[in-house]
Amino acid sequence: MGASFANCRNGILIVSPDLLMIQSATVLIVDDEKHTRDGLRLSLEDDFDCYVASNAAEAMEYLRNDPVDVMLTDLRLGEDDGMKLLEQALAMPRPPVCIMMTAYGSVDTAVEAMRRGAYHFVTKPLNLDEVELLIKRALRSRNLEQENQALKQQVERKFSIEGILGQAESLKPILETIQQVAPTRATVLIEGESGTGKELVAKAIHNLSGRPKAKLISVHCAALSPQILESELFGHEKGAFTGAQDRRIGRFELADGGTLFLDEIGEIDANTQVKLLRALGEQTIERVGGAKPIKVDVRVVAATNKDLAKMVEEGKFREDLYWRLRVVTIQMPPLRTRKGDIPILAEHFLKDLSSANGKNYKPLGEDALPLLMSYDWPGNVRELRAVMEHGVVMCNGSRIMARHLPDYLSRPGGIGWRATSTSPPLAVSKAAPELPEKAPLDIHEMEKQLIMEALERAGNNRSEAAELLNMSRRSLQRKLKQMGMVRKHRKRVKPAP
Ligand SMILES: Nc1ncnc2c1ncn2[C@@H]1O[C@H](COP(=O)(O)OP(=O)(O)OP(=O)(O)O)[C@@H](O)[C@H]1O
Ligand SMILES: [Mg+2]
Fold first, then answer.
1. Domain count, the chain
2. Which atom of ligand 1 lies at the shortest distance from residue 348's CA?
């Protein structure tokens, strides 16, 4: 190892689980003059693994077989064009950092090479110290770039897990909590209005739990009468009640080793609440009509769109059970408080539902998004999904326009679909002719429109607009800059005397 440590200053550290290996960075020297190749190799080989090629074909063959970290190439390679080699090398799946060598007096060409993606250039006759320094600088910047890339990917992964889409600030702590709590045994209570994604979160917790016999068993508590719910959850012995002709295994036992998702937990009756409390506390259950306690290893995730705390106050829900359930709570935000996520969600649903309905994906037309943004979404994300399906089904043109969406969206103050109904009404087919439509809106254009609208509503106050968009003022500032919408401060010109 001693010898390789000498190279480690400029090396790349590769850590594999069973071996710590330090590898030198690799440099490919491309020049048609032998003495330049040899001189460079001699001066650089103490610090780098050097390889040489005398023309473009040789260099490309080398790169195809074994990607290098840095390529140092002459701009004029006899018959070959160094610029072409540069372009080919940069088009490789793992492109090297390219440094161009150029004769004194042809700096213009070298600058053109940088415009095309070269890292830098050195002029001939070469100053070998300068070349070495430049290679080290290039490697440092490449490592930084790779780290940034890795970090970015990590952040993206973190902020969109298990199909939960959205960039709202209010969603970030939720995604963090999911990741934090998933591998533990803690009971989780997910609260939120209908359609906000409670079940999606429960699935994410289960999928990330790594529980060995990973099974997710769901029980929709509101759909079952008290007696049926009790036997659904805990099972029953033969003859436990009239009609119990056989022994039945309950959901708790089925979920053994996995996760039990209790949806609409606010709906369970007093008797089942007691049994549930015991199951949670002692990790044992008893089948209805059975006397034998049965040990179960179940992680419980519960969801409700009721205000459980209020139900406790009103004596409708056991306080001890409430505290057992809410070891960790997740509060899902209503869609109206994170309207900034509508474009991403809408696009996702359009893609998903187009393929499900055997149709080609069509983007939103320009009048559709403002309509989606002006609506309050009492049915939250589920309602948005259904509205997008309506659009997919009703649209025969190339873009989904406002007229393809349910009429109730545009009725002033009139909400056509209440959160209690199962799905929004599909409008009766409107045989409106397909009018010529303007260019499709891509996601950036949608974003721009949203920002403009928010600024307009906020009377150009950026802090207020950022709040409306559910983003930080700094993020808004950055977006405005990217869109070229930041006013430049002009220097005042003094009037001529
Ligand atoms: N952040 C999100 N990203 C992608 N899809 C989402 C998101 N939130 C919700 N959905 C989708 O919206 C629909 C409704 O979500 P889900 O069933 O999880 O809501 P819920 O809160 O359980 O509703 P309810 O209280 O009515 O049972 C599902 O199709 C779900 O996939
Ligand atoms: Mg649900």
1. 4
2. 4
d(CA 199, CA 468): 27
> Are 114 and 121 in contact, with CB atoms under 8 Å apart?
yes
Block residue for tokens 């977006």? 479
Cα(286) to centroid of ligand 2, in Å?
A: 27
Q: Is 26 in the pocket of ligand 1 (CB under 6 A)?
A: no
Model confidence at 366: pLDDT above 50: yes
pLDDT category at 9 given cuts 50, 70, 90 is very low
Q: Is the pTM of this model over 0.70?
A: no
* Candidate from 255-264, 266-275, 373-382, 454-463 with smallest mean pLDDT: 454-463
User: Are 226 and 307 found together in one domain?
Assistant: yes
Q: Which tokens belong to 471? A: 């983003």
Residue corresponding to tokens 């959160």: 419
| Candidate of 169, 200, 417 to mutate for ligand 1, largest count of ligand atoms within 8 Å of Cβ | 200
Name the residue range of residue 232's domain: 169-333
The response to whether residue 305 sits with its C-beta less than 6 Å from ligand 1 reads yes
Place of tokens 């053109």: 112
Residues 303 and 404 in one domain: no
- Of 485 and 368, the structure prediction assigns the larger pLDDT to 368
How many angstroms is it from 333 CA to the middle of ligand 1?
A: 11
From CA 317, how far away is CA 320, in angstroms rounded?
Answer: 9
Whether 279 and 194 share a structural domain: yes
Per-chain residues with Cβ under 5 A from ion ligand 2 = 199
